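B., you asked whether I could sanity-check this one before it goes into the benchmark set. Here's the sequence:
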Amino acid sequence: MSIESSPPRRAALSSWFPRGLTLLQEPSLNKGTAFTEREREVLGLRGLLPPHVCTQTEQVARVLENFRRLPSTLEKYIFMSALHDRNEALFFRVVIENTDEMMPIIYTPTVGLGCQQFGHIYQRPRGVFVTANDRGQVKNMLRNWPHHDVAMIVVTDGERILGLGDLGSNGMGIPVGKLALYTACAGVPPTQCLPVMLDVGTNNAALRDDPLYLGLAQPRLTGAAYDELVDEFIVAAREVFPGVVIQFEDFANHNAFRLLAKYRDRICTFNDDIQGTAAVAVAGLYSALRVTKRDLAQQRLLFLGAGEAATGIAELAVASMVADGVDEAQARRCCWLFDSKGLVVAGRTDLAAHKLPFAHEHAPLTDFAAAVRTLQPTGLIGVAAMAGSFTREVIEEMTRLNERPIVFALSNPTSKAECTAEQAYAWSGGRALFASGSPFDPVTFEGKTFVPRQGNNSYIFPGVGLGTIAVQASRVTDEMFLASARALAQQVTPQDLDQGSLYPPLRSVREVSVHIAAAVAEVAYAQGHAGIQRPADLAAHMRDAMYVPAYPVYA
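And here's what the prediction gave me:
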């Protein structure tokens, strides 16, 4: 059933329902030129709109015509942000029906540029900004949000935005974009989504000196004062929005791991950079292993990077192997990390706690190509935002060692990718099993066309959110992310694999999210975390809960 042919939903008009220009300025209610003659009469809109009553399909055509004539991705990002602020249902219909075209604009890679330019392109408020100066007032600030049914919060402090570093308050673009994907990819109703920026300052001197920077132009808050602000926010959010799921996003390593450890067993929360990235990467490994006909425990994975993403992926890979009966110590020996100082080995005294479980006995190595030659990995996973670090020498060595080398260049935006899809296929003679963090066009090599797909968290976190909310889960657990990885991999067809795609097409992401949400719910019931009686059909329950961006009938 198409969106426009969905059964019309009649909205109740109460005494406070907005009228006239006020209604046209409310994106969650606005239909623009699609208001009917009767609605225009009843709602005080007659004369405020052109006379032709448009269908939503006609509106979509107009949006796409204007979107496609724009010359740059940043202009397209601004255009879609303005549509989001003007007509929510139309925005989501455009995104849902044109996912491959819209996803790189409203999220990675263009959202990174949008964040860098945030203060220069700012138009309308979206979300809640909580600053270091607001301690003691956070609960009242959250109550200023107009929607009281919030079920999903994405919160950042802007210290590690994608691979771009400290963008301070500009990082608000990430929670806004992330929550747009919760709705577009998994149907979490937009009124249930709240972006939050914890603006604790920035150590980015260029931002502090920018006269158009909109955040606190002061050094970052640290230590006990920082923790007190985060804790006040957590307590306030759970009181104002009971049962809310809180996703930590783009926190720096030194805060990300400890905040997840502090709150994960106390509230319904997760860190997408650690757990969501892990699930999508492990799903890609499952798909690659369908081609190589090998088990995960037979792999040796070398990670370029040793932060949230790398250790999250490694931990979930270990959990997968242990679930299959492999000894944990043996499973950990399958995963090796390479950080800014070289190979992570047991003899180093400079290792953060999250790296220690993967610090194996080995001679020190400071050259990545030498590490590839020495360790002879079956797979490379790049998550260090070091552009071009998967060199021709590295890919050719991987191809010499493996019939089908696994090469995951997962850093984003595109400018931070370890290699391009074209490089991976050309340097491996078309043998690489490739996935990326940013989108790449199909590549034709020696007469064969490869269709690389993103190992993008948008395959995972929306379904996790939908499943958690739909069964009112009290916790989000690692087992849910492992189930998500398996559910995602199961949606990859033999036809996908034949063309080099380790993930399903993005156009099917809403159905993928249904399967992931059902898998998450299964774990919630098995672990005793679900808050409602088990539905007879979990997948049907998920579909019924999904938002559809069809216009309601007001009169």
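One thing to flag: The chain has a mean pLDDT of 96. Otherwise nothing jumped out at me.
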